[in-house]
TrEMBL record, chains A, B:
Keywords: Hydrolase, Metal-binding, Protease. InterPro entries: Cyt/Met_Dipeptidase, Peptidase_M20_dimer. Transmembrane segments: none annotated. GO terms for biological process: proteolysis. Coiled coil: none annotated. PANTHER family: BETA-ALA-HIS DIPEPTIDASE, CARNOSINE DIPEPTIDASE 2, ISOFORM A. One of its GO terms (molecular function) is peptidase activity. Residues 127-287 form the Peptidase M20 dimerisation domain. This is Peptidase M20 dimerisation domain-containing protein. SUPFAM superfamilies: Zn-dependent exopeptidases.
Length: 384, 384
């Protein structure tokens, strides 16, 4: 996997507000051989890629009606190729921060677009996202990596089977209601904090039918569901990599297995601290409770800080007005459960405010972006 | 997957003993398009396929030296295509049993060849194999099978995640030392029974280094290791099928996951009874202890009865003499941990005795087979 960073600017009018637009282009592998040398927008097919093209169309729209852009625009495009979860892959953000003086100077407002709405039909503006720690835990039975498996008919019964250890470890992460069991991880979760009434509670029936599950957790109470969707951490085990993943039945004893899980974090939790707790916990459980001679290795393969913006920031008000102008009704401010590496990074790097707009093209997404630029252009230009 | 049964005979001399030879040809998918219409031995590359060709060579050898075969031979070839574990795939044995009168009449002795030696360097003759129950357990979150996954950023925290349920269930199968925790499953395991001294205890150091593991189970006591290798049941979790098995990290919540595990059985256990216990147990654990609203489905996808032969049967003595003639030393009689569907089936269908020869071509395997036919030819022809 590769990561690239593209920076671009449009306009340097000192009388205008400067808005930074972030988009993440994840190039999935295509048939094209030259994908590494060209950032070919046509080669990308992910819904996330909607985050860049609409901005191009909006700029073209202003040009078509011969109107000047109401703001100076800066584009920050992160390009990950066939990797990872949303938000910039393995990008090293140091390069961004060191170039801050030149590129980020004057940026007061940043906007990221999300392809996923936070599970509500209401038009909304997002002022917070959960962070993320993505872990792998590998259990290795054989010292020699070329020993990938044994045969259960020949050796079943005399081995400390790595799969058994992995199942035990993964089963110790959360209880049946999804509560994280790792000591200390929930210490920094502000207990009293609750979604204010502006955060829309999900429609339980709609949520259940979207997921097609028989029953949701937390007694299907809409307020508690909102809490667990965006205001509390969650943990998901994504996969167990074993010896074999094809069809049919094999009777091998995998001697090297790897579990994948991720934890969504909320403000006041930091990936560093959470990561340490998990590594410490899993090693302790393995050594003291499982007491298996197999080796384990816990790795943090990706992380993102949680992000939350002061909901009273005028920037969010401008975004809400833009949504209302286009879609009508009363757009809500809300926090969502997804993660974006760049939200917290931009907040820290610019010292300004960040807003996330869920971009639903069916719901007039392009017009919302144009209206957003218009509204932000009216804001105070006094900055620093 | 397809299964076929090939029957062939060579010689009908009433003055000779009739020996049935079983071999299992597992056709792995090849590049050839016509693999379904031809049983092409060259298209098979599995070590197991050694079980048929050597017999052909042995017959040719007798012909080359112009010696009559010392026995009447019957070939029973089971052909599975790209399936399952050893021993005949999804073959329906009814067809074998109903044709018993014609094809199996007069068969007193049956021989199966195994490509896997039971973990000992000593030449040996095998008089017992463990049985097998192969299970899958599927946990389904979404009612609608087209809902294959959700996104942990959007929905993490409000779902009863099927993976969590599956990990919990699989973790309840055995304890950390490999003891099966399912009530009743060990009831039929004869406790007092122990390997007699003729059964060779494994060389601990050799076993450990073959597997390249840091430590074996059961305190690395060679007698206890032998017990667990062949005289006691074992359970292995082979794989967890999740939503994704490719490289990289995905943050999906699989809504349909499936675990694969198998249980090796010992005499007095029957697949039917064991199967019922497992299905009952997993459903009970899920309903009463996990209390998740997700649906589970436990399936027995394959099974084999355990097989054990009276070690005093003269047939085994003949096989031992054959091994001694070719390889020297004192071949041991032993039981092994693998499984063969046909061993128990042939024992029941013929009413005669069955022997298994581990076929190591480096150790003069072909000569052993020829010597075996010679020795069996000397046995009493009075039968029925």
């Amino acid at each position: 996997t590769y990561s690239h960073l593209l920076l671009a600017g449009l306009g340097e009018d000192p009388g205008k507000v400067t808005v930074l637009v972030h988009s993440d282009v994840d190039l999935q592998p295509t048939n094209r051989k030259d994908v590494h040398s060209h950032v070919d927008l046509q080669s990308t097919r992910r819904k996330d890629d909607l985050s860049l093209l609409p901005w191009v169309h909006v700029v073209e729209a202003f040009q078509a009606i011969k109107q000047p852009l109401p703001v100076n625009l800066k584009f920050l495009v992160t390009v990950a190729e066939g990797t990872a979860w949303e938000g910039g892959g393995t990008l090293n953000f140091t390069c961004l921060l060191t170039s801050k003086k030149r590129f980020l100077s004057g940026v007061r407002y940043s906007c990221i677009t999300l392809d996923r709405s936070p599970g509500t039909r209401f038009p909304c503006v997002i002022y917070g996202l959960r962070g993320l720690c993505y872990f792998t835990v590998e259990v290795t039975g054989a010292d020699d990596p070329s020993h990938s498996d044994a045969h259960s008919g020949v050796y079943g019964g005399v081995l400390y089977e790595p799969m058994g250890d992995l199942l035990f470890l993964l089963n110790c992460l959360v209880d049946e209601r999804g509560k994280i069991l790792v000591p200390g991880v929930l210490d920094d979760v502000v207990r009293g904090e609750e979604p204010p009434s502006r955060d829309a509670e999900p429609d339980v029936e709609e949520l259940r039918s979207t997921l097609a599950v028989p029953r949701l957790a937390h007694k299907e109470d809409s307020r508690r569901l909102l809490l667990h969707l965006a205001w509390l951490p969650s943990l998901t085990v994504h996969a167990v990599e074993g010896a074999w993943s094809g069809p049919g039945a094999r009777t091998s004893v995998p001697l090297r297995v790897k579990g994948h899980f991720s934890v969504r974090l909320v403000p006041d939790q930091t990936p560093d601290k959470v990561c340490l707790r998990f590594i410490e916990y899993l090693n302790k459980v393995h050594r003291h409770f499982r007491r298996s001679p197999n080796a384990i290795r816990v790795e943090l393969t990706s992380s993102a800080r949680p992000w939350v913006q002061d909901p009273d920031d005028p920037h969010l008000g401008a975004a809400q007005r833009a949504v209302r102008t286009v879609l009508g009704g009363r757009p809500i401010l809300t926090r969502a459960g997804g993660s974006s590496k760049m939200a917290a990074v931009l907040q820290r790097a610019t010292g300004g405010s960040v807003v996330a707009l869920p971009l639903d093209l069916d719901m007039g997404g392009l017009k919302v972006l144009a209206a957003y630029l218009h509204e932000v252009g009216q804001l105070d230009t006094n900055w620093h």
